[in-house]
Amino acid sequence: MLTRRDVLQRAGTATALATTASWWLVRRAHAARDKKLTVWNPAALAPQVDKIMQEQCYAYLKQAGIKESEIDYSVIGGPQLLPKLVASLEAGNPPDITRLGSGYVQLYRSQGHLLEVTDIVDKMQKAQGGLFPISLGTVLHQGKAYGVPQSVSPWPLVTRMDILEAAKVDPPKTWDEFIEVCKKLQKPPRLTGFGPCLGLESDTDNNVMNMMWCYGGKLVEADNKTVVLHSKGTIAAVQLIADMFNKHKIIPKGSIAWDNTGNNKAYQSRQVIFVLNPTSIYAHLADSDKELYNVTGLLPIPAGPAGAIEEITTAEWLLFKHNPYPEVAKGLAEYWMAPENLRVMIEEGDGRWGPPYTGMYDSEFWKRSVFQHWRTMLERGQLFSSPGTTNAASGEVIATHVIARMMHRVLVESWEAEKAVEEAHKKVAEIYARYQEA
Amino acid sequence: MTPSMTTSRRALQTIPGQWGKSKKVTLSMTSSRRMLKGLGNVVLVLMLLWTAIPFYWMIATSLKHDKEIYGYEATLIPQQPTLDNYATVFRETPYLLFMRNSIVVAVSSTVLSMIIACLGAYAIARLNFPGRAFLARSLVFTYLVPTSLLFIPMFALMSALRLTDSLHGLTIAYLGFDVPFCTWLLMGYFKSVPVELEEAALVDGCNRVTALVRVVLPLALPALVVVTFFSFTHAWNEFLYAHVFTSTNSARTVTTGLANFMSQDVFFWGPLMASTIMSALPPVVMFLVLQRWVVQGLTLGGVKG
Fold first, then answer.
1. CB A230 within 8 Å of CB A317
2. How far apart are the C-alpha atoms of A148 and A125, rounded to whole Å?
3. If both were cysteines, with which of A83, A148, A316, B198 could A333 make a disulfide (CB 3.0 to 4.6 Å apart)?
4. B67 vs A contacts (CB less than 8 Å)
5. Helix axes B95-126, B167-192, angle to 10 degrees
6. pLDDT digits over B220-274, tens only?
7. In B101-179, at which residue ranges do the beta strands (DSSP E only) sit?
8. pLDDT in tens, B206-219
9. Fold of A33-153+313-380
């Protein structure tokens, strides 16, 4: 028979266990960590690139005196890395080093997970003409670096040059010209002019934002506080896309349901003449469709009233704390980013990434005609939240697809462009305000 | 035929015109039955197509070249069939190692969950102890918690116990949702087995365990087969835990190995489909084998001795 005292004792024990178990578990997870250097490298498009990076890793660790049994090297499918990383961070057992795209350095830096790597970035600044400012901007916080710039990639206008050449049409220089070229060359329904991603996906956010810049629109000012989405430029760009979709009919109707692979598939299946995407399409064609690869051009984005500004995606090496060999992990990042090692990896990737060093574009590889605009695009390109910095607020704007939803209001629900922009502005302002308070 | 039916049939025969009417009624009933049967068949064919077409599409895609996969015209039959995608899977991934890992994890978690579930279900169904009802209900609640909520605390637990990136760790993790489901399902089935049979076995000298093994389990064969099949396919198809808890090839299962054919915004459809087909084979074979036992078990239960 249980007495009242027994019940209270047991309830007390249960409460104590419930409240301390999570803390204890995380502490234990740290303590249980093997003396191993854990590397999670997201899969590149080409298996040979994965192989080169792995070989470079083992070569460096060998010279650093680390045994093979002390290395835990994994290649992880790109979309699968984040859930794994989130769980490992929560559990207090993250990898020592991994590679992620723009924005994550500042996110994990703000949460206190990252090692400071200013010394590596300082050395990189002194090599090969230094780093592109856009690469540097993604890793710096109050003068200190928390990520190692790995690559920069512009979002060019991936173009069927064979169709343009057959019709003796020059690449369009402005969006007005672009519409005319599309209307002239397309043969719907088999071949449509333009294939932007317009589903509720991050490619849509990026494509729409990229066109907004050309018309003078932007998300936030450089102070990271003043949200300026609701502007004439944004409204004009949204209206332009709506006109392309409804009036000029140069965008496939199905694009409103595409995911991030939709525009790739449309281009690879020869259903569109132009797409606005990173060079993953081009790099993938090198193995999958040589014929299309040979007739694909990477053109600069057409200009709007505010000019031509490409979107840039960067990638960085992130080194996490609780690392048994912090100096070795830093050495590995440095070794990977040594120009002679990086060159092999980048060139084997066939244009999927560009080096973050400004002086590394003088090799024969980068003199190929397909890359003739690459440098210009990098120099004038911007990140999603420019002129503001990439931070947790801009990350949430992308994660919640505010921009893509704004476009859907117009294309799917037939809202006026201004009303949709106004609604999106309020949402973005709410998000930024929340992070200011935090 | 009952006397009253015979009488009414005769009565109909004697009244001129009535017989013809009945014929019409019979005819219309037959035709409506035929229509219903036809409609049923159409629905079945549609359901069959609904189920089979994705499988066919997977097979066809695995035999196509990239150019055909991405071609404007979707081809139903591969124009130039190739086994290149299968070769790519073996060339670029340690596929046989992934397969071995999947088999080890699926078989071990199935065997363990069967043993634990049989004992647990029997105890809850037959023995009287405090908290029995609570335990039974908590089994359902445990099963209902989605894995997407559990994987982070589970990862912390696995890390603390040094069970990450190992096959035995994954096996133990799968028991977390296999055991509650299997126990719950077996519990219901054990309750339907007459207690008198066990009492007779106990009188004949069996103890609880031998009564369970010799009397209850043979009678619960259909449920055991269902539970085995569930555990195996679940462990075989599971992705989230396998992905989060393992890192190196030595512990990766087929599902996580396949994910490497997805890179950023590009999917390698050919090799992805080829490896999916190969990984679907073991559960299919298992189902074909177990299906016979399900039918046999059900038939045995339906015949009175």
1. no
2. 11
3. A148
4. 288-289, 291
5. 40
6. 888 898 889 889 999 999 998 998 898 888 899 999 888 777 777 778 889 999 9
7. none
8. 898 999 999 889 88
9. D-Maltodextrin-Binding Protein; domain 2 (3.40.190)
**Which two three-digit tokens encode residue A15?**
């409460």
Which CATH number does A157-309+400-437 carry?
3.40.190.10
Residue whose C-alpha is closest to residue A271's, from B71, B68, B69, B65: B71
Q: What is the pLDDT of residue B1?
A: 43
d(CA B282, CA A116): 48
Give chain B's end-to-end CA distance (angstroms, integer). Answer: 30
Domains A33-153+313-380 and A157-309+400-437 share a fold: yes
pLDDT at A24: 55
Distance from CA of B30 to the nearest CA of A (A): 48
* Residues in chain B whose Cβ is within 8 Å of chain A: 66-67, 70-72, 92, 151-153, 155-157, 159-162, 164-165, 240, 243-244, 247-249, 256, 259-267
Q: Which residues contact A298 (CB under 8 A, 6 or more apart)?
A: A156, A157, A158, A159, A279, A282, A351, A370, A371, A373, A374
Q: Do A45 and B264 touch (CB under 8 A)?
A: yes
DSSP one-letter code for B213? I
The complex's ipTM works out to 0.70
Q: Quote the Cα angle for A199-A205-A209, to 5°.
A: 135
**Structure-token pair, residue B65:** 């070249």
Contacts (Cβ under 8 Å, ≥6 apart) of A270: A160, A191, A292, B70, B71, B72
Residues of chain A with Cβ-Cβ distance to B165 below 8 Å are 72
Give domain limits for chain B.
85-300
Fold of B85-300: MetI-like fold (1.10.3720)
pTM listed for this prediction: 0.78
CA distance A226 to chain B (A): 32
Residues B136 and B191: their CA atoms lie apart, in Å, by 13
Three-state DSSP class for residue A116: coil
Q: Using alpha carbons, select from A371, A248, A242, A382 the residue that is nearest to residue A306.
A: A382
Taking the CB of residue A364, how many other CB atoms lie within 10 A of it?
7
